[in-house]
Design a protein that fits this description.
Elements lengths: L1 H16 L13 H22 L17 H56 L11 H27 L2 H7 L5 H15 L1 H9 L15 H26 L8 H29 L6 H25 L8 H23 L1
Helix pairs in contact: 1-9, 1-10, 2-8, 2-9, 3-4, 3-6, 3-7, 3-8, 3-10, 4-10, 4-11, 7-8, 9-10, 10-11
Protein backbone atom coordinates (compact mmCIF):
# COMPACT_ATOMS: atom_id res chain seq x y z
CA UNK A 1 0.00 0.00 0.00
CA UNK A 2 2.86 2.39 0.83
CA UNK A 3 4.53 1.77 -2.51
CA UNK A 4 1.23 2.39 -4.28
CA UNK A 5 0.87 5.72 -2.47
CA UNK A 6 4.40 6.75 -3.47
CA UNK A 7 3.75 5.65 -7.07
CA UNK A 8 0.62 7.82 -7.26
CA UNK A 9 2.57 10.81 -5.92
CA UNK A 10 5.32 10.09 -8.48
CA UNK A 11 2.79 10.09 -11.33
CA UNK A 12 1.48 13.45 -10.13
CA UNK A 13 5.05 14.78 -10.01
CA UNK A 14 5.70 13.63 -13.56
CA UNK A 15 2.53 15.37 -14.75
CA UNK A 16 3.51 18.62 -13.01
CA UNK A 17 6.97 18.55 -14.52
CA UNK A 18 5.34 18.20 -17.94
CA UNK A 19 2.86 21.05 -17.54
CA UNK A 20 5.04 23.63 -19.31
CA UNK A 21 5.17 21.58 -22.52
CA UNK A 22 1.60 22.45 -23.67
CA UNK A 23 2.29 26.13 -23.07
CA UNK A 24 4.68 26.07 -26.02
CA UNK A 25 1.66 25.38 -28.24
CA UNK A 26 -0.17 28.56 -27.22
CA UNK A 27 -0.36 31.07 -30.06
CA UNK A 28 -0.44 34.87 -30.28
CA UNK A 29 -0.98 35.56 -26.55
CA UNK A 30 1.28 37.42 -24.17
CA UNK A 31 2.64 35.67 -21.08
CA UNK A 32 0.19 37.36 -18.71
CA UNK A 33 -2.81 36.36 -20.82
CA UNK A 34 -2.07 32.65 -21.11
CA UNK A 35 -0.81 32.49 -17.52
CA UNK A 36 -4.10 33.64 -16.03
CA UNK A 37 -6.23 31.57 -18.43
CA UNK A 38 -4.37 28.38 -17.56
CA UNK A 39 -4.71 29.50 -13.94
CA UNK A 40 -8.49 29.45 -14.24
CA UNK A 41 -8.22 25.74 -14.95
CA UNK A 42 -5.28 24.94 -12.67
CA UNK A 43 -6.26 26.98 -9.60
CA UNK A 44 -10.05 27.37 -9.79
CA UNK A 45 -12.05 24.95 -11.92
CA UNK A 46 -10.13 21.70 -11.49
CA UNK A 47 -9.41 22.16 -7.74
CA UNK A 48 -13.10 22.94 -7.19
CA UNK A 49 -14.14 19.78 -9.02
CA UNK A 50 -11.58 17.86 -7.00
CA UNK A 51 -12.89 19.30 -3.73
CA UNK A 52 -16.37 18.05 -4.59
CA UNK A 53 -15.03 14.50 -4.31
CA UNK A 54 -14.60 15.12 -0.59
CA UNK A 55 -18.34 15.77 -0.15
CA UNK A 56 -20.21 12.57 0.82
CA UNK A 57 -23.70 11.78 -0.40
CA UNK A 58 -26.36 13.72 1.47
CA UNK A 59 -24.10 16.69 2.19
CA UNK A 60 -23.22 19.88 0.32
CA UNK A 61 -19.93 21.62 -0.39
CA UNK A 62 -21.09 24.73 1.49
CA UNK A 63 -21.34 22.78 4.73
CA UNK A 64 -17.54 22.76 4.89
CA UNK A 65 -17.48 26.50 5.43
CA UNK A 66 -18.89 26.95 8.91
CA UNK A 67 -18.19 29.54 11.58
CA UNK A 68 -16.19 26.96 13.48
CA UNK A 69 -13.80 26.61 10.55
CA UNK A 70 -13.51 30.34 9.80
CA UNK A 71 -9.99 30.88 11.17
CA UNK A 72 -8.57 27.82 9.45
CA UNK A 73 -10.33 28.73 6.20
CA UNK A 74 -8.91 32.24 6.11
CA UNK A 75 -5.43 31.09 7.12
CA UNK A 76 -5.52 28.48 4.37
CA UNK A 77 -6.48 31.13 1.80
CA UNK A 78 -3.91 33.58 3.23
CA UNK A 79 -1.05 31.14 2.79
CA UNK A 80 -2.43 30.46 -0.68
CA UNK A 81 -2.01 34.17 -1.45
CA UNK A 82 1.61 33.97 -0.28
CA UNK A 83 2.10 30.82 -2.34
CA UNK A 84 0.82 32.78 -5.34
CA UNK A 85 3.80 35.12 -5.01
CA UNK A 86 6.03 32.06 -5.13
CA UNK A 87 4.25 30.89 -8.27
CA UNK A 88 4.96 34.18 -10.04
CA UNK A 89 8.65 34.21 -9.14
CA UNK A 90 8.83 30.49 -9.93
CA UNK A 91 8.28 31.27 -13.60
CA UNK A 92 11.04 33.89 -13.50
CA UNK A 93 13.48 31.39 -11.99
CA UNK A 94 13.04 29.15 -15.03
CA UNK A 95 13.45 32.13 -17.32
CA UNK A 96 16.93 32.80 -15.94
CA UNK A 97 18.01 29.25 -15.06
CA UNK A 98 16.02 26.97 -17.38
CA UNK A 99 13.40 24.35 -16.52
CA UNK A 100 15.80 21.88 -14.93
CA UNK A 101 17.93 24.11 -12.71
CA UNK A 102 15.17 26.65 -11.96
CA UNK A 103 12.71 24.00 -10.78
CA UNK A 104 15.45 22.16 -8.88
CA UNK A 105 16.44 25.08 -6.67
CA UNK A 106 12.94 26.51 -6.24
CA UNK A 107 11.25 23.19 -5.54
CA UNK A 108 14.08 22.05 -3.28
CA UNK A 109 13.70 25.12 -1.09
CA UNK A 110 9.95 24.68 -1.23
CA UNK A 111 10.24 21.02 -0.18
CA UNK A 112 12.36 21.68 2.89
CA UNK A 113 10.68 24.84 4.16
CA UNK A 114 7.17 23.66 3.29
CA UNK A 115 7.61 20.50 5.35
CA UNK A 116 9.08 22.30 8.37
CA UNK A 117 7.02 25.51 8.39
CA UNK A 118 3.65 23.73 8.45
CA UNK A 119 4.00 22.00 11.86
CA UNK A 120 5.94 24.96 13.34
CA UNK A 121 3.28 27.56 12.50
CA UNK A 122 0.45 25.18 13.38
CA UNK A 123 2.07 24.70 16.80
CA UNK A 124 2.13 28.47 17.33
CA UNK A 125 -1.60 28.85 16.76
CA UNK A 126 -2.76 25.49 18.09
CA UNK A 127 -0.19 24.25 20.65
CA UNK A 128 -2.69 21.70 21.93
CA UNK A 129 -2.32 19.76 18.66
CA UNK A 130 1.35 19.02 19.37
CA UNK A 131 2.09 19.46 15.66
CA UNK A 132 5.85 19.50 16.30
CA UNK A 133 5.65 15.83 17.27
CA UNK A 134 5.37 15.04 13.55
CA UNK A 135 8.90 16.41 12.97
CA UNK A 136 10.60 13.17 13.99
CA UNK A 137 14.24 12.21 13.37
CA UNK A 138 13.18 10.28 10.27
CA UNK A 139 11.28 13.29 8.89
CA UNK A 140 14.16 15.71 9.52
CA UNK A 141 16.55 13.21 7.94
CA UNK A 142 14.34 12.98 4.87
CA UNK A 143 14.29 16.77 4.52
CA UNK A 144 18.06 17.04 5.01
CA UNK A 145 18.76 14.34 2.40
CA UNK A 146 16.39 16.11 -0.01
CA UNK A 147 18.23 19.39 0.49
CA UNK A 148 21.56 17.62 -0.03
CA UNK A 149 20.25 16.31 -3.34
CA UNK A 150 19.13 19.80 -4.32
CA UNK A 151 22.51 21.23 -3.31
CA UNK A 152 24.28 18.68 -5.51
CA UNK A 153 22.10 19.68 -8.46
CA UNK A 154 22.89 23.31 -7.62
CA UNK A 155 26.59 22.47 -7.84
CA UNK A 156 25.94 20.94 -11.25
CA UNK A 157 24.23 24.18 -12.26
CA UNK A 158 27.18 26.23 -11.05
CA UNK A 159 29.56 23.95 -12.99
CA UNK A 160 27.37 24.43 -16.05
CA UNK A 161 27.49 28.20 -15.65
CA UNK A 162 31.27 28.19 -15.31
CA UNK A 163 31.99 25.83 -18.21
CA UNK A 164 29.79 27.25 -20.95
CA UNK A 165 30.50 30.31 -23.05
CA UNK A 166 27.94 33.11 -23.10
CA UNK A 167 26.79 31.95 -26.54
CA UNK A 168 26.28 28.37 -25.32
CA UNK A 169 24.37 29.58 -22.25
CA UNK A 170 22.03 31.66 -24.39
CA UNK A 171 21.53 28.76 -26.79
CA UNK A 172 20.32 26.53 -23.92
CA UNK A 173 18.43 29.21 -21.95
CA UNK A 174 17.89 32.53 -23.72
CA UNK A 175 18.07 34.76 -20.63
CA UNK A 176 20.46 32.60 -18.56
CA UNK A 177 21.74 34.48 -15.48
CA UNK A 178 22.87 32.22 -12.64
CA UNK A 179 23.25 34.80 -9.77
CA UNK A 180 19.97 36.55 -10.56
CA UNK A 181 18.16 33.28 -11.19
CA UNK A 182 19.47 31.76 -7.95
CA UNK A 183 18.16 34.66 -5.85
CA UNK A 184 14.75 34.52 -7.52
CA UNK A 185 14.58 30.71 -7.23
CA UNK A 186 15.30 30.84 -3.49
CA UNK A 187 12.56 33.46 -3.00
CA UNK A 188 10.19 31.38 -5.11
CA UNK A 189 10.96 28.30 -3.05
CA UNK A 190 10.38 30.08 0.26
CA UNK A 191 7.03 31.51 -0.80
CA UNK A 192 5.97 28.30 -2.56
CA UNK A 193 6.52 26.42 0.69
CA UNK A 194 3.47 28.28 1.98
CA UNK A 195 1.35 25.85 -0.05
CA UNK A 196 2.01 23.06 2.43
CA UNK A 197 1.47 25.45 5.35
CA UNK A 198 -1.96 26.20 3.91
CA UNK A 199 -2.66 22.48 3.61
CA UNK A 200 -1.71 22.02 7.27
CA UNK A 201 -4.15 24.72 8.39
CA UNK A 202 -6.88 23.34 6.16
CA UNK A 203 -6.42 19.60 6.72
CA UNK A 204 -9.45 19.47 9.00
CA UNK A 205 -11.78 21.10 6.45
CA UNK A 206 -13.63 17.95 5.40
CA UNK A 207 -16.34 15.65 6.68
CA UNK A 208 -13.99 13.52 8.76
CA UNK A 209 -14.69 9.81 8.64
CA UNK A 210 -17.42 10.40 6.06
CA UNK A 211 -14.81 11.60 3.57
CA UNK A 212 -12.63 9.01 1.88
CA UNK A 213 -9.02 9.42 3.18
CA UNK A 214 -7.84 9.86 -0.42
CA UNK A 215 -9.92 13.03 -0.83
CA UNK A 216 -9.60 14.70 2.58
CA UNK A 217 -7.02 17.33 1.60
CA UNK A 218 -8.77 18.36 -1.63
CA UNK A 219 -10.97 21.09 -0.05
CA UNK A 220 -7.84 22.63 1.51
CA UNK A 221 -6.07 22.37 -1.83
CA UNK A 222 -8.90 24.34 -3.44
CA UNK A 223 -8.67 27.09 -0.81
CA UNK A 224 -4.90 27.40 -1.23
CA UNK A 225 -5.12 27.60 -5.01
CA UNK A 226 -7.99 30.08 -4.67
CA UNK A 227 -5.70 32.38 -2.71
CA UNK A 228 -2.95 31.86 -5.27
CA UNK A 229 -5.34 32.68 -8.10
CA UNK A 230 -6.13 36.05 -6.51
CA UNK A 231 -2.42 36.96 -6.38
CA UNK A 232 -1.80 35.88 -9.96
CA UNK A 233 -4.95 37.54 -11.30
CA UNK A 234 -3.98 40.90 -9.79
CA UNK A 235 -0.50 40.69 -11.30
CA UNK A 236 -1.60 39.41 -14.71
CA UNK A 237 -4.35 42.00 -15.11
CA UNK A 238 -1.84 44.68 -14.10
CA UNK A 239 0.48 43.41 -16.84
CA UNK A 240 -2.43 43.38 -19.31
CA UNK A 241 -3.00 47.06 -18.51
CA UNK A 242 0.68 47.98 -18.52
CA UNK A 243 1.51 46.16 -21.75
CA UNK A 244 -1.78 46.97 -23.50
CA UNK A 245 -2.49 43.26 -24.03
CA UNK A 246 -6.20 43.19 -23.17
CA UNK A 247 -6.74 42.59 -26.87
CA UNK A 248 -5.39 39.05 -26.48
CA UNK A 249 -8.75 37.96 -25.09
CA UNK A 250 -10.50 39.27 -28.20
CA UNK A 251 -8.53 37.13 -30.65
CA UNK A 252 -11.29 34.67 -31.45
CA UNK A 253 -9.23 32.75 -33.98
CA UNK A 254 -6.82 31.38 -31.37
CA UNK A 255 -9.21 30.83 -28.46
CA UNK A 256 -10.01 27.20 -29.22
CA UNK A 257 -6.33 26.25 -29.56
CA UNK A 258 -5.15 28.29 -26.59
CA UNK A 259 -7.96 27.26 -24.26
CA UNK A 260 -7.29 23.59 -25.06
CA UNK A 261 -3.59 23.82 -24.25
CA UNK A 262 -4.26 26.00 -21.19
CA UNK A 263 -6.65 23.30 -19.98
CA UNK A 264 -4.06 20.61 -20.62
CA UNK A 265 -1.35 22.60 -18.83
CA UNK A 266 -3.70 23.30 -15.93
CA UNK A 267 -4.72 19.65 -15.65
CA UNK A 268 -1.10 18.49 -15.64
CA UNK A 269 -0.20 21.06 -12.98
CA UNK A 270 -3.16 20.18 -10.73
CA UNK A 271 -2.37 16.48 -11.06
CA UNK A 272 0.49 16.86 -8.59
CA UNK A 273 -1.80 17.88 -5.73
CA UNK A 274 -4.62 15.59 -6.75
CA UNK A 275 -2.06 12.79 -6.77
CA UNK A 276 -0.70 13.99 -3.41
CA UNK A 277 -4.15 13.70 -1.87
CA UNK A 278 -4.76 10.25 -3.36
CA UNK A 279 -1.29 9.10 -2.38
CA UNK A 280 -1.73 10.23 1.22
CA UNK A 281 -4.75 7.94 1.43
CA UNK A 282 -2.36 4.98 1.05
CA UNK A 283 0.27 6.35 3.47
CA UNK A 284 -1.87 6.49 6.61
CA UNK A 285 0.02 3.52 8.07
CA UNK A 286 3.25 5.54 8.02
CA UNK A 287 3.11 8.88 9.90
CA UNK A 288 6.65 9.59 8.68
CA UNK A 289 5.79 9.30 4.99
CA UNK A 290 2.54 11.15 5.59
CA UNK A 291 4.43 14.13 7.04
CA UNK A 292 7.07 13.91 4.32
CA UNK A 293 4.62 13.46 1.44
CA UNK A 294 4.86 17.11 0.34
CA UNK A 295 8.65 16.97 0.48
CA UNK A 296 8.62 13.74 -1.53
CA UNK A 297 6.36 15.33 -4.15
CA UNK A 298 8.69 18.30 -4.56
CA UNK A 299 11.76 16.05 -4.72
CA UNK A 300 10.19 13.96 -7.47
CA UNK A 301 9.15 17.15 -9.27
CA UNK A 302 12.85 18.05 -9.34
CA UNK A 303 13.80 14.62 -10.66
CA UNK A 304 11.32 14.78 -13.53
CA UNK A 305 12.03 18.44 -14.30
CA UNK A 306 15.68 17.53 -14.83
CA UNK A 307 14.63 14.68 -17.10
CA UNK A 308 12.77 17.28 -19.16
CA UNK A 309 15.79 19.54 -18.95
CA UNK A 310 17.90 16.80 -20.53
CA UNK A 311 15.25 16.17 -23.19
CA UNK A 312 15.07 19.90 -23.98
CA UNK A 313 18.89 19.93 -24.26
CA UNK A 314 19.35 22.49 -21.49
CA UNK A 315 22.45 20.57 -20.35
CA UNK A 316 23.86 20.24 -23.89
CA UNK A 317 27.52 21.19 -24.09
CA UNK A 318 28.24 20.51 -20.42
CA UNK A 319 31.21 18.38 -19.41
CA UNK A 320 30.85 14.74 -18.42
CA UNK A 321 31.74 15.70 -14.84
CA UNK A 322 28.81 18.12 -14.72
CA UNK A 323 26.39 15.47 -15.99
CA UNK A 324 27.74 12.97 -13.43
CA UNK A 325 27.17 15.45 -10.60
CA UNK A 326 23.65 16.11 -11.92
CA UNK A 327 22.85 12.39 -12.02
CA UNK A 328 24.21 11.92 -8.48
CA UNK A 329 21.87 14.68 -7.29
CA UNK A 330 18.92 13.00 -8.99
CA UNK A 331 19.78 9.64 -7.38
CA UNK A 332 20.04 11.26 -3.93
CA UNK A 333 16.58 12.79 -4.39
CA UNK A 334 15.10 9.44 -5.35
CA UNK A 335 16.72 7.85 -2.28
CA UNK A 336 15.31 10.64 -0.08
CA UNK A 337 11.79 9.48 -0.99
CA UNK A 338 12.34 6.02 0.53
CA UNK A 339 15.09 6.44 3.16
CA UNK A 340 12.91 7.80 6.03
CA UNK A 341 10.76 4.67 5.99
CA UNK A 342 13.88 2.55 6.54
CA UNK A 343 15.02 4.47 9.64
Amino acid sequence: MLLLGLLIIAIGAFCQSSCYVPINKIKDWSWESYWIVQGVFAWLLLPFLGALLAVPSGHSFCELFTAGNAFNIWMTIFFGVLWGVGGLTFGLSMRYLGVALGQSIALGTCAGLGTIMGPVLLNIFFPELNALDSLTFAVITGVVVTLIGIAIIGVAGSMKSASLSEEEKKAAVKDFNFPKGLAIALLAGFMSGCFNVGLEFGKGINFGELTDPMFRTLPATFLVTLGGFVTNAIYCFYQNQKNHTWGDYKKGGVWANNALFCLLAGALWYSQFFGLSLGKGFLTESPTLLTLSFCILMALNVVFSNVWGIILKEWKGCSKQTIVVLLIGIVVLIVSSFLPQLL
